[in-house]
Amino acid sequence: MQFTNRRARRAMAGLALAAGAAIALAGCSSGGVSGNSGDSGGGATSITVWHNYTGPQATEVKKLVDEYNSSQSKVKVTAQYAAQSDQFDAKLINALKNNTGPNMVLGDSTPQKIGQVVQTGKVVPLEKYLSSGSITKDTFTEGMLSTGSFNGKQYSLPTDIGDYAVVYNKEMFKEAGITDTPKTWDDLAADAKKLTKGTTQYGMYLPIGTGEWPVFTWQSMLWSAGGDFLNEDNTKVEFNSAAGVKALTAWTDMLKDGTAYPQSLMTSTSNGGTPAVTSKKAAMAITGAYDLGTLDEALGKDNVGVFALPGIKENAMNLGTNNSYLLKGTDAQQNASWKFMQWWLSPTTEAKWDIATGLLPANSKTSDDSTWTKYLDDNPRLKAFASELDYAKARPSITQYGEVSDALSQELQAAMLLQKSPSDALEAAETKAQQALDAK
């Protein structure tokens, strides 16, 4: 809702309210929790599921798990909060090495790092499960499947989907005489000029900082300009290109002409975007559907609009996914975990989950479900987010992604603070990122 490590700060939906529960770990064989065969004595196979949901999402997880356990007698699921998203994979890997890990992970919010978990040899390839049953590869788009594919095998499936769009203050648009939302980035930049009032009101808030959020959002700009992030086999940096310079210049030009926020508006909360809009310092910002509640409360629901992120040459979008996967245990535990995952991904369950959390359907069956489509009809602003999934792509699922992203985010910030030119910033980022790829 990888969303990007964004959920660690805000509860991806909420993406992260402070929460945490101590985890009682039980030793087991074959890398799964529970020190027995998994049979609870009444014919049910017991499995332990780790997640990193917090706040309202954790409440909803418990509610749905209880519903599943009450609906059948073959599988008994125990859900446990493991750690916040930036610590989750490290804790999981350590547990797997000590044979104290769970049977399943629900909603890992950093799918680009799952490759490190796969390297433990404890993640179950899903091909045999996906060959039949209610959930198959055809249930997902290619972009969504790619988030869990490593070395030609499918190790995880997206169970949460998030993306971002542009939210805006309708009253400010009306006051500026803007009657339609922008369809291209040039249109957006032109509208931002009309919306800017000196230093009291800026037309746009653009992502800044050294975390994943600026990289996550800028990749859409790069793709929309016709560029690539890495080459096809993820061995070579491609973002330092004419398209990359064009994509970054589209942002820095708005900083230079004063239509986007200055450095002084940068905050550590919500990447700055939502506070800038709720405080009426900015008329537009890039964020996810999970922030609509906060915006509505501050500005009034009728005053908060949404439109798809405009592109430079064409529209582009980056998928934020939380992925789920099975971990090696007994055949009974693995089969029970798969049964639970199929139930979680069923249209009925996923529609409930998405409606409660502000997330989007992770598969086509839920997208077509009558409950979900009615919800979209009743909440038309969500259609802007949902429509972007048709052309969305995903970040590369490689073990070095974190280092590549860190190298780029440092240089994006230097460019956004106007300390470096876009070309110099991307050249420096390429050098550091390529070193990380070559160190594989």
What tags apply to this protein structure?
alpha+beta; 11% strand; 440 residues
Molecular structure report:
- The chain has about 450 residues and is an alpha+beta fold.
- It has 19 helices and ten strands.
- The chain has helices at about 5-10, 55-70, 85-95, 115-120, 125-130, 140-145, 170-175, 185-195, 210-225, 240-255, 275-280, 290-300, 330-345, 345-355, 365, 370-380, 380-390, 400-415, 420-440, and strands at about 45-50, 75-80, 105-110, 150, 155, 155-160, 165-170, 285, 305, 320-325.
- A five-stranded mixed beta sheet has the order 2-1-3-10-6, sandwiched between helices. A three-stranded antiparallel beta sheet has the order 8-7-9. A two-stranded antiparallel ribbon has the order 4-5.
- Helix 2 (about 55-70) runs antiparallel to helix 14 (about 345-355), helix 9 crosses helix 10 and helix 18 (about 400-415) packs antiparallel against helix 19 (about 420-440).
- It is globular.
- The model is unreliable at about 1-35 (pLDDT under 50).
